[in-house]
Amino acid sequence: MADAIVRTRTRLVLFATCFAAAAAAMGQTGEARLFEAIEEGKQLVAEGIVARGDVNLDARDKDRETPLHRAIEKGYRELAAMLVKAGAPMGARSANGETPLHHAALHADTYFIDLLLFAKADPRARNDDGESVLQWAVMTGNPRTARHLLERGADPMASDLKGNTLLHAAADGGHAEMVSAFLSLGVNPRQRNRAGKRPIDIAKERGYAEVVKLLERYERD
Fold first, then answer.
1. What structural domains and CATH numbers belong to the chain?
2. CA 162 from chain center: how many Å?
3. First-to-last CA distance in the chain?
4. Which of 47, 36, 106, 102 is nearest to 78 (CA)?
5. pLDDT tens digits along 153-189
6. Three-class SS state of 152
7. Are 167 and 182 in contact (CB under 8 A)?
8. What are 42-58's pLDDT values in tens digits?
9. pTM for the whole thing?
C-alpha cells in the first residue's frame, strides 16, 4: 500500500513538473510560479517546480520570505523537505529578521523543527526584535518544540530587546509546564523587562493562577 502511494505521488510530481515546464514556456519566472503555487495551495505543482531545479531558492516575496519560509508556514511537509534537500538557505531572513526556523517553531508538531535542525539551522537565531526561535515556540505554547530546540543548543537565558525572558513569554501565555521547566533551568524569575514587569506580574495581569502559584515560591521582593 505504501509503495503504491509513493508511486502515485511520484507520477503526480512528474505531471506537475511537466505542467511547470509548460508554464515556463509562457514567460513567467520559476520563482514567481513557485510562490504562486505555494500561496494557492498547489503543493504538487510547487514540488514539480522545485524538482526541475531551475529556481533560485533564495528568492523573496514581498515580505522578504523565501519559498522555505512559506512552505513551513503553510505546513507543506513534502515541499519543505524537497526545498531543504535542494539547498534552500537555512539562514535566510524575512523583513523582520525571522529565519525559516522561527516559523517552524510555531508548529506543535516537531517535524519542521527537526527537519531544519538536521540541516544545520541555527537554534539560537533571533529576529530584529531580539526574539529567539525558542521564544517563538514558548509564546505559541509548544513544549515539545521548545524541548527539541533546547536539546540542540537553544539558549534558555536569552531575552528579547524589550527585556522579556522566556519566563516572561511562558507567563504571558499561561504555560505552566514551560514556566516550571525554565525555573528548573535557572531562568531568573525576578528579572524585570524594560517595562519594569517580572514574569509573576504578567501572570497576575492575565489571571493565570497556576503560573502565579509557581512563581510565588521564588519571589522575595
1. 156-221 (1.25.40.20)
2. 21
3. 63
4. 47
5. 999 999 999 999 999 999 999 999 999 999 999 999 9
6. coil
7. yes
8. 999 999 999 999 999 99
9. 0.86
Could you list the beta-strand ranges (E) of 54-207: none
**Per-residue cell: 92:** 535566510
SS3 132: strand
DSSP code at position 18 = H
Contact 81, 106 (CB under 8 A): no
One-letter amino acid at 127 equals N
Q: Are 72 and 104 in contact (CB under 8 A)?
A: yes
| 8 Å CB contact between 102 and 91 | no
The span from the CA of 76 to the CA of 63, in Å, is: 19
- Residues 3, 22: Cα–Cα separation, whole Å: 29
CA distance linking residue 182 with residue 140, whole number of Å: 15
DSSP 43-82: HHHHHHHHHHT-S-TT---TTS--HHHHHHHHT-HHHHHH
pLDDT band at 3 (very low <50, low <70, confident <90, very high): low
- DSSP for residue 126: B
Task: Give the other-Cβ count within 10 Å of 168's Cβ.
Answer: 29
Residues contacting residue 166 through CB under 8 Å, at least 6 positions apart: 134, 135, 138, 156, 158, 159, 178, 182, 187
